[in-house]
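Dear Dr. L.,

I hope this message finds you well. Following up on our conversation about the binding site, I have prepared a predicted three-dimensional model of the protein together with 3-isopropylmalic acid. For your records, I am including the exact sequence and ligand specification that went into the calculation, followed by the structure tokens. Please feel free to forward this to your student if that is useful.
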Amino acid sequence: MSHRIGVIAGDGIGAEVIPEALKVIAAAGVSLDTVDYDLGAHRYVVDGVVLTDEIVDEWRGLDALLLGAVGGPEVPPGVIERGLLLKMRFDLDLYVNQRPFVYTPADGEGHDFVVIRENTEGTYAGEGGFLRKGTPHEIATQGSVNTRFGVERCVRYAFELASSRPAKHLTLVHKTNVLTFAGDLWQRTFDAVAAEFPDVRTDYQHVDAACIHFVANPAQYDVIVTDNLFGDILTDLGGVVSGGIGLASSGNLNPDRTGPSMFEPVHGSAPDIAGQNKANPLAAILSAAMMLDFLGEGDAADRVRAACAEVSSRTGSTTELGDAVAALVTA
Ligand code: IPM
Ligand code: MN
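The resulting structure of the complex is given below.
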């Protein structure tokens, strides 16, 4: 069966890494029926289109979306981020952002852990505004939206994931000592859902302490669940401690499958190295592996991940590394 996939290669190195991901999927023997969407900063400059409701409606009929990177210095901050990436997350209800990491100590075995980031609420909901903008008495507010429904569905997903893994350990990361309203809602929701998962060992860390632990002892983690902004920051740190952002993959998931999920490398469009065939394609390839998992192609996904692990210690151009992974997957 062929899966129907919308492909948004996007800007900068996105256009270079996505062909490598598609090459590897084909090598793994999975057949995709792809539709390309020309979106991103470059498109916005041409005709002002960021993302229309019509395109989103078209996507609802697809099995998944694969995205390279969007954004660039030619567009003011926020236009593409909010208009494209966040619109996808909100309109398609991609309420879980799953970001896996493999941490390999200098003298030991690789250890994998995964961050589950709430993806549709918090400060990203866009609540706030200006008063007396541009005057000396200007006020800017930026609220954080936390609904019981939104927190609970994300936390439940994290418990289900933790329960399915050997270590069965889930850490809640927040800032309950200062964000006493949102933090309280998160903690109470976490505790209530925990009662449904007696097999899962639970922990709590404040986000600032978690930053220390991410660097000093990432091997203590199995699954982490956290709010949208904390998850944004922590997953960049997670990338750095586990082989670099060139390996960091992600899935923006709609676990209820009421629409397609979207898979993307965590790195951005990196305009400084774009067009030079030197971007690391592994993050995009690993994101494609997550997509394969989600499409029920777990066997192919495992083979792709094993090939990426082997290639991750090599150096080479974007296409060379993509070819190397493809060759290993085929073999
Ligand atoms: C990410 C990115 C996005 C985010 C930006 C580009 C809107 O940093 O996916 O982590 O903040 O979520
Ligand atoms: Mn980020």
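In brief: Residues 18 and 205 are 36 Å apart (CA to CA).

With kind regards,
A. P.
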